[in-house]
Amino acid sequence: MEGNGMTDDELDAINEKISNLFEGKTLDEVATVLKIQLAMLVTQGSENSEDVSDFLDEITTEVEDMVADFDFTQASEGSPS
Question: How far apart are CA 22 and CA 37, in angstroms?
């Protein structure tokens, strides 16, 4: 599966809209919606289950890298206790 060449501004706008949709939702509620959406997207964009598995493996690695680079200390300092 290949990206469609969206610009950073387009990605930022989509991320902002999604963030607004999930505002006030729990992590579990958000995860449920995202899992359903991801399953629908990968099955529509793949020819077989092996393609789906390969794609999910790729994005799992990318997400793990993003989380590894995340500054949890700074994020927790900015949130109310």
Answer: 14
* Contacts (Cβ under 8 Å, ≥6 apart) of 1: 42, 45, 46, 51, 55
Q: How far apart are CA 29 and CA 34, in angstroms?
A: 9
Token code pair at residue 66: 């993003």
Other Cβ atoms within 10 Å of 59 Cβ, number: 12
**Rounded distance, CA 14 to CA 20, Å?**
10
φ, ψ dihedrals at 24, nearest 5°: 85, -5
28-71 confidence digits (pLDDT tens): 999 999 999 999 999 998 999 999 999 999 999 999 999 999 99
